[in-house]
Fold these 2 entries.
Entry 1:
Amino acid sequence: MKVTVKYFAVCHEELGREEEQMELPEEATLRDILDRLEEEWPEITEFYQVMQMSVNWEYATEGTQLSEGDEVALIPPVTGG
Amino acid sequence: MKVTVKYFAVCHEELGREEEQMELPEEATLRDILDRLEEEWPEITEFYQVMQMSVNWEYATEGTQLSEGDEVALIPPVTGG
Amino acid sequence: MFKITDEVIDTQRVISAVEADNAGAIVHFLGTVRNNTGGRRTLYLEYEAYAPMAEKKMAEIGHEIREKWGLDRVAMMHRVGRVEIGEVSVAVAVASPHRSDGFEACKYAMDRLKQVVPIWKREIWEDGEEEWVKPDPVYFDADRGVRTSDG
Amino acid sequence: MFKITDEVIDTQRVISAVEADNAGAIVHFLGTVRNNTGGRRTLYLEYEAYAPMAEKKMAEIGHEIREKWGLDRVAMMHRVGRVEIGEVSVAVAVASPHRSDGFEACKYAMDRLKQVVPIWKREIWEDGEEEWVKPDPVYFDADRGVRTSDG
């Protein structure tokens, strides 16, 4: 299945892109996306301790299963205001 | 000595005037003004329990001595906002 | 800026009075005229003030805020005369480097205004009656600090 | 109204969005860009947002306020892009029949915004350096309610 993954702020900077399409196996979870990204950004798991992820504009946990067409985002600690 | 006495809100209404000049003996206090007003408004002492008075834009107690030219006011419970 | 006015309050002007390049937060309070009190329909309100003393007392509230929170950018403007439903009767703005001080100080300014600033509100009801509004309980609860020894 | 915008925030529009004839109080918060952080001079800020999620999260804060205080007139607007010193980065307005609820709810809206709304601030210093701003402690203190079981 295909999902869109979006990168903001420091994630965007680290990865050098704002978003991408990712092809994942059926029943893939958010953890699979982190694993995939770890290859090019080894510190991501450590960084994930303070970061969050979202699926379709809602915060979600690492084990959340994905579906075709989902919009995922990596969300560094927010600093609005 | 002469002082100006100002009446606001319900005091203005009860007494039918906004202000007046009052001729008072030397060493007169705010209490003397209340006594003077009691003749035409007998409930004023009772009303004074919730009311305040001011001399020259500052809250003052009944025993405050007055001076020539002072501006006195009767201040009913405030309700701004 | 601590001002009594008989004109429509320009809320942007109250904000501008406290803006500063080193403030990160502005807390801005507007009191507006409600169309009812306890369910009874209001037609409009009339405010009366002892203007010079009211402006002096508002400035003193500004000094109190400077002492308590170290904030010196405070503005208060109160309208007098006839004020229609939905219009602004009072506007307060406080600028501060951090927002929680700003919220506390702005709330304090309004609480103190209702205790010590000589302004009175007259309610004109839709049924044709009118009356001076009863004071807010905060007026009696608070230490007004002027009457206890002699009053 | 819960909105991310790349234009100058019209603060009057945020107030107008919550005005109602039965509200007696409007508490209005403005976050403005400071000319320094901890004494170091700032040139300007850049804000980035995950706009659709940010608007959804702000609307959820509105729902929380309705549940906690019964207030349903809340507006939040946050700017993105380059924001100059002194300009407004965020505006919140809450209308309420009584002022103390309004102060609490408006403060709550800002606290929650800093916890859950996906917006990021980049500081561009006068000395030419720039960096993503570190999160507010409130972000870590609060129960964010989403990561503890699995995060």
Entry 2:
Amino acid sequence: MSLDSSLAIEGKSPAQLAWIRFKKDKVAIVALVFSTIIVTLALFAPWVCALLKIDPYSLDNTTLDSVGIPNSPFGGMSRAHPLGVEPGTGRDILARLIYGARTSLTVALIATFFTTLLGVILGIWAGYKRGIVDGIIGRTIDLLLAFPSLLLIISLAPVMQPRLVSMGFPEGNPARMTYIILILTLFGWTYIARVMRGQALSLREREFVAAAQASGAKTSYMIFKEILPNLWAPIIVYASLTVPGYIAIEATFSFLGLGVVAPTASWGGMLADSIRYFRSDPAYLFIPGTALFLLVLAFNLVGDGLRDALDPKGERAQKV
Amino acid sequence: MSEALEVKNLVKTFPVGKKGFFSKPAGYVHAVDGVSLAIKSGETLGIVGESGCGKSTLGRVMTHLLPATDGQVLLNGVDVTRAKGEELQKLRRTIQMIFQDPYSSLNPRHTVGRIVGMPLVVQNINPAQGRKKRVQELLELVGLNPEHYNRYPHEFSGGQRQRIGIARSLALEPKIIIADEPVSALDVSIQAQILNLLQDLQKQLDLSYVFIAHDLSVVKHVSDRVAVMYLGKIVEEAGSEELYSKPMHPYTLALLSAVPEPNPEKVRQRILLTGDVPSPINPPSGCRFRTRCWRATELCATTEPPLVQISTNHKVACHFPGPTPLPN
Amino acid sequence: GGGGTSADGSGTPAKGGTITYLTIAEQFNHVDPQRNYTGQDLAFFGSYVNRTLTSYAHAEGTAGAEVVADMATDTGTATDGGKTWSFTLRDGLTWEDGSEVTCQDVAYGVSRVFATDIIVDGPTYAISYLDIPAGDEGSQYPGPYKATAEQQALYDNAVSCDGKTITFKLNKVVADFNYTVTLLAFAPVPKAKDTGEKYDDAVVSNGPYKIESYVKAQSMILVRNENWNPDSDPVRHAYPDKVVVNFAQDQAVIDSRIIASSGEDAFLVSMDGIQPENLPTVFGDDKFKNRRVNETDPYALYAAINVNKVNCLPVRQALLVALDREAVRQVAGGEFAGDFADGFISPTIAADYAPNKVLDGVQPTGNPDAAIALLEQAKTTCPDVYAKATGEGLVYDHPDTPTWAKNAAVWIVSMKKAGIVLKSNPIEPGKYYSVVMDEALQGDISRGGWAADWLNSSTVLPELFGEGGFNISQNKKDPAYAAYKALMDEALAQTDRAAQGAIWKKANQYALDQVWAIPTFFGRSQEFRGGNIGGGYLWYPFGSHDYDALYVIQ
Amino acid sequence: MARFVVRRLAFMIFLLAIVSIATFLLFSVLPVDPASLSCGQHCTPEKIAANRIRLGYDQPLINQYFTFMKGIFAGRSYGEGAQAFSCPAPSFGYSYYRGQCVTEMITNALPATISLTIGSAIIWLTMGIGLGVISAMNKGKIQDRVSTGLAIFGLSMPTFFIGLLLIYVFIIWLQIFPFPSYTHFLDNPFKWAQALVLPWFTVAIVSAALYTRLTRDGMLETMSEDYVRLAIAKGLPRRKVLVRYVLRGAITPIVTIAGLDIAVLLGGAIITESVFGLPGMGRLALNSVTDSDLPVIVGITLITAFFVVVANALVDILYASLDPRVRLES
Amino acid sequence: MSKNILEVNNLSVSFNTSDGQVHAVDNLSFNIKAGEVLGIVGESGSGKSVTASAIMGLLTSGNVNLSGSIKLNDFEIVGAKDSEVRKLRGSDIAMVFQDPLSSLNPYYKIGVQIGEAYETHHPDASKAEVRNKVIEVMKKVGIPEAERRIDSYPHEFSGGMRQRVVIAIALINDPKILIADEPTTALDVTVQAQILDLMRDLQKTSNTSIILITHDLGVVAEMVDRVLVMYAGRAVEVSDIKAIFSAPIHPYTKGLLNAVRSLDSAIREKLATIPGTPPSLLNIPQGCAFNPRCSYKQWAGDKCLVQKPELHEIGNGLTACHLSKTDIERMNKDELPVV
Ligand SMILES: Nc1ncnc2c1ncn2[C@@H]1O[C@H](COP(=O)(O)OP(=O)(O)OP(=O)(O)O)[C@@H](O)[C@H]1O
Ligand SMILES: Nc1ncnc2c1ncn2[C@@H]1O[C@H](COP(=O)(O)OP(=O)(O)OP(=O)(O)O)[C@@H](O)[C@H]1O
Ligand SMILES: [Mg+2]
Ligand SMILES: [Mg+2]
């Protein structure tokens, strides 16, 4: 007896269904396009800058007055410098933004990758195994949460960076970026791990897990083949929401002087510098600030859209 | 008929109220408390009882999904509860499980082909004709279109999903299948389909079933023998005919009388038990049913009645067994 | 203080009122006179709290560089060709508790300098000048806290009291020792009140004001020292009734409040100059003309070259000529940052300053072509350094702040024009000097700045390129050093000031010829105060306010 | 319940011990030598060695740890003879760089931080929960869109940028506020508030955004609970259902997170305090890092960890005492 | 017979979801008289609970499309102001939900949760009055030691006791209609028997009308006077209880009854089945929704594939089937051949 006729629903994989939902979200699509543009600009920064005839390093004293403030309005915006120039040096802000985005995105994306990797593995492991493994991972999370992470990050930077160099990371920016990535991963994994643990805890109660166990599946099979595939949605969602957070944090670090070294551009560094020119050159605050805000916003919106598409919740909520 | 599976004095407890690494549990749930059973090959043993009486736990210990606290589960003379590694892996091929919830028992991210083929993969079995072919055969066997190999579970209805689960349990060509409430989550019209399928498969493949359910009428349809559980213990065990026509344990009596009859013309006399099933953490002393039993005396509080053979095909654990329905 | 909001900073000196200073600092570096060694702190405590045997005149311009008698009756008597100096205390000198300031108090104060485990950070002229035998490390005398009787005798022999006269026996001729004793390290301390380490929190005043409270990161309040005897003090004016210092202020906040100068804010004085972005505002508007100061200060700014690493004169010369000093100055604030420097001796030390010729051919914006030519030379004479400078790159040390990061960028860009590769090495600001002074950690080029301890290049040139403690050019192994050392020795032994000045000028030229460091500009300071405060000028010896001269306009 | 409290407190103490050990170990790897920090110019290795002995850094780490822990309970004295001085209990060490007891520095910094924390917590909780409630109640409608839109805007603003923006807009451009200069509440409550308004909002905006989301999601989740459906079926007025059922169910995770957030803030809002120049814990921390002032860093780390761990325990206990299922367990 | 107290006419409910429109209830009409017990049966997802929610006026969220009319004692619920409907809820119509565990708020004492229902509709009642009323109703639903247990929390109650609490909440204001949505599905048979017994007693003493929603035909047989059978959001048959068991007038009802097991059936007897599965509500078959599973459809020609059958009277019952009256009678007697 075949039951073909009753199979009325058209076959769509869960990913296809999510994509259909995502496409309906106009805001998310715009944000996705925007983020993609920024990522592309950053990726091809040298070509983009060459095309626009701008350069992030060359000084342009002609645009500055005697104390180093841009001598034309709106932070010295002109055809040669579309978003104006940096006070003190006359370097092109647009070019510095494009190059700065490289740093931000590299750090944010790599750190997100490792954070997610660590969080997912430890979280699922804890949730699936429970018992002692869960206990140890849980206590580690408690411990990490108890520390003032920002303080530790900035106070440990001077010791950890040379250690990275001695471990073979090139001195200067690579070591600094590696440190930030490492430290973000170290403190960042807990959140995603807790989400994953919760999910794994509930998944392990599902009968398909018992079915695989009853057939003799090993732990690694259970975690990677049975449980993990069910967590792609939350993984993608949380990873995509981690990126904007990390972009902001990277900027915060460079704002505090932990970021890349001169003359490499960084968004946070520009903002830290802009404080001294509040009154005379507010454009220098607004342009990098707005750029940072828009990039973080765009990534956040994409993440949100993904969440709505992949993990639709609250649809059944009762109107009160 | 030979004995396919034998359960001897099986005990399973769960610690409760354990909060940290170092703390002691506040108590233990006596989920299964000294159960002995035997399943002959080709036979269906029904296990009924109210929620929380330990049916699922019993099933899970039998398949080594849970370690036993004490006792044995003998399969071809090997104790499943102590088996490890290779040996356990082999035993798993003989004894498989069908689950209650057709929604949670299939991995939503896997295709039907992958779900049904999973046991072959984890057991590293490569059938001569290839895994895909074998899976398609299985699908056909349970009445599904083999073309559905690449579809996802969410594209199927509850009944069809349950068929997929059954196909999966057959992949390793087991001898014994533990079916834990396989139809409770299905609609009536679908339940019939699945029950019929299970019966057909049994004949075709010479399977033994342990059929767990809380619904006495379902059990009646499929079982050769029925065991009634109450708070982790078997209180009565008999051939189906015998049990339904001549129940001896007051609990069985009450259970049978409580089943609503789908016939408005027929008014059955009903034994209304008072109260609920007591907590399995602190089960009553003596006979566990005494707190709800109309026949209970002092004796029941002090002495636990053993499960005794009262006729060739009938065991009961009661100090005052008898078919008298009415409390008086 | 009183009300008026329209005050424009002009008035006549008068007593009374409260002056409130704002600073971004969390606290004074040191309050303990023996540990006090930064220009601003010396000027502040020298004006208000601590009196020394001699001090600088409270006067504008070069007049302020003149040493005058303070606690002493005159500016000291040198005997033995300048190897023995004695000073006699005036009558009526008192501590804040009314007791008399004795000669022993002065001797005790100076002795504390030797307790180098506790009395840290202060100048150590006492140790290097006083005639006390040297031990394995430093002096045989370990300071008053640990000294045995014999050790104390060594000190008492070098510094002795005879009634009110104190005599210092020196181990060499120090022609300007009466300038040395202007340092607060030579201030008296009452032995009975010395609390060692904790003396840094509360000192006993012998000046016109005493410390009423001092809460770090918050405020210090000074009130009149009723036991200060004005008759004994011809130097200080002691105008305000009360002096308040508010710490841990935001630079932007300080500027904004003083620019507005409204209400109570008219009584504010900034201790930190003006941030660059406000310079156009403050100096572009005449309404601030009585409230602002823009003067050359005693600092010479430069970038030291680690000569051990860059031991190749043509490369150093290439660095010197390639630098776009215009851009460097632009980052620091343009013309407000200072004038282009042509050496290491600031024109404020008029006696020793002479214009140098070396930089004449180099435009302020740098001369890459000349640099390239010099590098060509280096290619053959010192290929290793050449390779590093044009390949792997030279390391440029600078403090890790936005401004210095930009400074580094300017260096990198201007060197690049000449084909020189520079790598930035940002160092935590708080640790900058301890890092660059450690040769193992220092890069190839390190920024620096230095001002004379008193108006004599003896506190500059030996420090920067000689045996002094601030030599970050690491030039002692340079073959050219021997000639320089000879000049130093000659100058230090020279008691005739004019002749000495001539030698300093030569040495200055010599250091520049060897390009042990690249001078950038002679610092310029801006000071700023509220409309109800008068009397501000840049006090020459310290490059800061003359705190004593500031008064509340009544 | 009593058993639960005891156990939770025991775990808290255990965690504190671990945290203090971890902190000690962590900072022992710093290349900073506190002995050389107090040595000044013209330092020699001998002097540093002598200093090290004087300050106790010559001791094995474990002894240093116990001396430190003892100091917390019994106070600690440094040096000997006439030059000795001491930091009374609870002593978190002594900063040679600043010449001050760490405890004193922290107590000086706490008022500003507490003012910042409490003020901003009030703002973000009311704003966040308020918007969250509005949003959840009007799911899908314009109010919801606006609230969630605001939330995502807030979330996308890095704290330091908000701070800078507020300074620019309200101080420099509109000149509504003077440049903040922190005054103690008791000295002048008005100036106190005036200096804190912008920092409050700076801290509050990001958190408010987060709490809007938390509240909204939590409420929507509770709204799909059966007991809410039954409450509606009883005919309870809307307000009552919202407050007693929906909010009551949604508030618990918010309380936990708020407890933690507030505790973390009490350890200092590094960014906000440094942007606004508030003399609080965060700024103290940042300055100490810049100065490599190890004892202060250790002190602040421990204090912050202490706040977090204690807050966590308190929240757990509060949580349990609010939940009858736990309360009645034993 | 007495007057209808509830009249539902042409009720249609659909939900807009991200996957498309879900037609949960389609053109449903039925009524109920005072003191009557109406059973609504149907397979999972056939729209039973949605119908109940519609009557309670609970379908107000943004993604619901609701049309038709629901009249309670001549008061129109569809489109009424929320505040008006709120007054009815819990007083005139009360509801008991399936899961007694999740229906009670874990944070409040059960006395409070019961009392609330009374206070809301009797704002002037004093505390003591409310308390007495609560104890009274608790006793009525058979909760022992009501005076003591009024201060217990839900988790201290067993499943059966909790369901009694939920029923007490429903009954405290003497509602005219009680909607019980699968009130015993989550309970064990022995407990189910207790609860059914209780409901039967209460119904008899207070003459409340009950809408009993269930998919257990055994429960229906024991409890109700009249049955409404739903399939894919539509009513397919409305008949008296006895009639439906003896002579179902819709092929679906017939199939359902055949598939039901009872304790009387023989051991290991093969069950009759309805082939296929219920349709997805996103994609209801054209014509009669049951047609793909119907064994008699060729007797009605092509109609079944194109035209939705309307409810019409056959004998004492209503059916929505294109089969002619004679064919239905033949079907009853198993004379109509199955294909
Ligand atoms: N992992 C576990 N930890 C603690 N207690 C458990 C666990 N699994 C089951 N129990 C308890 O053991 C008892 C028996 O549970 P089991 O699931 O076997 O009952 P059941 O008869 O299958 O009930 P149901 O009909 O509800 O499925 C119950 O009281 C249950 O709460
Ligand atoms: N709020 C909602 N949003 C979208 N779809 C809904 C909503 N509520 C119910 N549905 C859908 O409406 C259909 C009918 O649901 P309903 O709950 O009435 O079924 P039921 O007959 O009560 O089934 P069961 O026996 O499983 O309780 C289902 O397909 C369900 O998915
Ligand atoms: Mg079970
Ligand atoms: Mg339902």
